Amino acid sequence: QEKKIFTVQGDYPIIRRLLRARGWVERKLPGTGRRLEQHHDPQHYPWLPAEEEEEKEEEQCDDDPSGIHDLMSYLVRDRLPNFIWTNFLEATDRQLLQQDNVVNHYSRVDAFTTKEGLCLSLQNLLWIEQADPNTFFPRCYRLGNMDEREAFIDDFCLTAARSLLKLALEEAGDMLVKTEQVPNSAKGAGKSHISHPKHSTAWPGCPLYSELVEEALEVCKQHLSVLQHQDIDRNTPSPCRTCIDWDHFLQEYYRVAHEGAELVLTRQQRKQCQNLLQHLAEQLPQLDMEGKLNIWIVKPGAESQGRGIICTTQLEEVLQLAWTCTAPSVQVGRWVVQKYVEQLLTIFGTKFDIRQWFVVTDWKPLTVWFYQDCYLRFCSWPFSLCHLERARHLCNVSVQKWYKMSPDQDPRLPPDKIWSNKQFQEYLAQMGQADAWHQVLVPGMKAAILNALRSARDRVGFRKGSFELYGADFLVGEDLQPWLLEINSCPTMSPSSAVTRRLCANVQRDTLRLVLDRKENPTCSIGAFELIYKE
């Protein structure tokens, strides 16, 4: 009569305990474990972002010594639940989904909770909100789409050209040439600077001729012209469709960026590089964060837990990977490639990311609640752009749990590889950035989350009475700007540390306060949740 019958599918002992404390009675479903195991199999539902496997140790504790909860569950065995908390909607019996019950998921959220879906949705953001995703989401392409694959190839080449200019400025130093004459040691006495790189013979230790820089300058000038819309009245070809030999250019760029080959740069070229990069920075929000080594990260479009993710600097490797099935349950072509954030903030020389929770309680009108507590996840090995191992670059707990902390790691790093946001704020204060959390990071994360939701809302299955808790993952740039990586449906509630044991319990408690208690008492405490948007 009070409509306080609930069902929990999955290992959520805290949700079960909190509901029982509110006087709710659980309707237990027969065979739930076997059915969930089948649904959890990536071969059945590879797109479901299940995250880390839930630990069962808390579930095994006996919190019903008198058996009263089991007895009451037996009495409501034929009743429909009024509240359903499940790992994912697809595991829920459709007969249980009545019009007036509360469910902790919406349908078709893959529009922003898969890497492929988020990539596609944010491409439309400019038309929906007139916001530029390039200011908070690293450039991303779906390799299974021919147009996007071609756009990625163009982007890779243009990024290589910009990176070459940055490397040339960085490495020039005392090697500046006063005239257009190429050094005798490189070309022979008295010969003028006229040879094209693709006609020259390069060998290890030999400086590359300045024509390589000249080509990069010309390509970047054309790209800047396109960005500034100076090509409207004339038929300017794409910078990546010009007569430049891109295969040769990329091979020479690889030598400079990854093999230590040196560049020769004239004084005039140095000035041109500086001016051109300055103008490009005004047009390209990601110019600084993209770095100089042209690293990209390739991900299965609908996997989680870091499965199948690879960092690479080679265009050929990206294209080959996209058309070979190297990860279980990943269809050929169902990959995304995203620009790696090279200029990122590290803590004690180690990469980290931020897991940030938020709840959507309505889509019409869109209503979003931001959780004011979050946590950081550290890698096990020191950060390095010269070594692309997963232990250095993937912060997922499900990845890092397989690696021991490197002996080269700073002893100030937490042994369990987790920090709370409070610890991070203390670190920022020690670095002289005490206001960065509240003035830069939090507003940036809120804006990115809202833009992602707005871009996908027309594709989400709306249902009154539902709600959903999400986990967004962010990197932090050197300038302390947050970069959204992905959004997870069903974020893990398994504690991997003392910090996550406390925070995961708190966010589950506060979520129930928000979606249940607040209905009866609008002034009740909702813990650390903050309403950040309501249409």
From TrEMBL:
Keywords (A to Z) from UniProt: ATP-binding, Cell projection, Cilium, Cytoplasm, Cytoskeleton, Flagellum, Ligase, Nucleotide-binding
Domain of life: Eukaryota
Pfam hit, one: TTL
InterPro entries: TTL/TTLL_fam, TTLL_monoglycylase
A biological-process GO annotation: cilium movement
GO molecular function list: ATP binding; protein-glycine ligase activity, initiating
Location within or outside the cell: Cytoplasm, Cytoskeleton, Flagellum axoneme
GO terms under cellular component: axoneme; microtubule cytoskeleton
Protein name in UniProt: TTLL3 monoglycylase
Organism of this sequence: Toxostoma redivivum
Gene: Ttll3_0
